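Annotated sample (chain length 295).
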Amino acid sequence: MAWSSYQKLLALVMLVTGSFNTLSVKYADMQEVVGQDGSIRKFNHPFMQSAFMFIGEMLCLLIFLGDGTVDSHSLTKGSRNFNPLVLLIPACCDLISTSTMYVGLSMTQASSFQMLRGSVIVFTGILSVGFLERKLGGREWTGISLVIVGLLFVGVSDLTTTDKDSPGLNSVVTGDLLIICAQVVTAVQIVVEEKFVSGLEIPPLQAVGWEGVFGFIGIILLMIPLNYIHAGPPFGDNSQGTIEASLDALVQIENSGRLFMAVIGITVSIAFFNYVGLSVTQQMSSTTRMVLDHV
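Output written by the structure step:
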């Protein structure tokens, strides 16, 4: 079935914003800025980055509530008769997967991160068969097999291009494994959204907004103990030596215009990316969304 002009636009926006988000996160990771203790170090705050991502998602809810043409506008058209708690499970999955992926991204390369995220296609396909009762033909299984082969090449490439005597090798391998593990959780999120959310005809702008609210509350609660749990590098590479140091992150953002712009890029791009992603799930399917996500 041929795609409509609207579906093609969704696909294009998803490609651009997804790539821009990955580059913004990695660019922030690379910035060396004065922290709370006066020392210069890289911006190593994956959980704060997740918080900014959820702020971006919450902006979608503000736009939805501020739109005066609810019944006619394509961004806000849909049913409002639903319990927002139905979005709690996808939001929790988003919280876990995003935080894990951002930790992994801080330990490996942006190119490897984006390609390893392609493993979600495999997990989404398998879960779609089990929970959505979708039948995959030979073409789909062939595609999944090729994705697996491609992932093996990416993993081998990381091993062969990193100095085996360098302590950074363990960091790269750990980062790659964290990214792949996060894709299992992402696949659960996508399948749950298609099974329970798409059928309710919830406006995508509202759905993303509520997921942002639940996710932001969750990440704030999570960061409270993380600000007191001490850890060695790379996790504790901040002014406090803890897994997360929220004040240190805010000080670094204040001290660097480039870092501030990267954070703005993370916030804005993820809002558009998640909106069009959920729209693709509603308009087409979760599998299509995952393929577009990794083009």
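Annotation: The beta strands are 32-34, 40-42.
Annotation: The two ends are 20 Å apart (CA to CA).
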